[in-house]
Structures are given as structure tokens and as C-alpha cells.
Automatic annotation (TrEMBL):
Record keywords: Methyltransferase, S-adenosyl-L-methionine, Transferase
Annotated catalytic residues: 30 (nucleophile)
Gene Ontology MF terms in the entry: rRNA (uridine-C5-)-methyltransferase activity
Keyword check for Magnesium: no
Name of the protein this chain belongs to: Uncharacterized protein
Xref: Gene3D superfamilies: Vaccinia Virus protein VP39 (3.40.50.150)
Biological process, per Gene Ontology: rRNA base methylation
Binding locations of S-adenosyl-L-methionine: 3
UniProt xrefs under PROSITE patterns: SAM_MT_RNA_M5U (PS51687), TRMA_2 (PS01231)
Entry similarity comment: Belongs to the class I-like SAM-binding methyltransferase superfamily. RNA M5U methyltransferase family.
Record organism: Nostocoides australiense Ben110
Amino acid sequence: MLDPPRTGAGKDVCCAVAALSPRAIAYVACDPAALARDLATLTGQGYAVTRLRSFDAFPMTHHVECLALLEPAGGRIDRTGPTKIS
């Protein structure tokens, strides 16, 4: 689960999380622009957005909370490297 500050998680954190090969990543964001930047990084690491919701948690303001669920694109991601076949 990622719940970064308004500036987003950033490329380094997103890559580090993706390197752990989680079966899913729940990302909570309070800035849709930062969420978009981080989603671009995570999709580049082999994850796909499977669900996306926005919540007007603070009515009468411009603030919107977003929740994105990412899962490995095409199934489980194998980051152990190529397997040698003898």
C-alpha cells in the first residue's frame, strides 16, 4: 500500500516497490497529477491499473482523493531473471 505525500511517491520508490513483485499495489493519492506520474512509472515496471476511484472527501474544495489498484500486467511478474534450460 502506498500513501505518499501530495508530491507523490516518486520514481525511486515506485521502482523499489515494483522490484518486490507484490501481487497488487493499492495507491492512495491526494494529487491526481502526482498519481498520474507515479502510475506511468509503475506501468513501465510491468503493472496495470485494474481499478481507479476518486472520492470527494472534502466537499466545496478542489481536493480529491484517488485510490488506484495495480496488478501485474499479464499475470505474475517474475523478477528472478531468465531460467536456463539444460
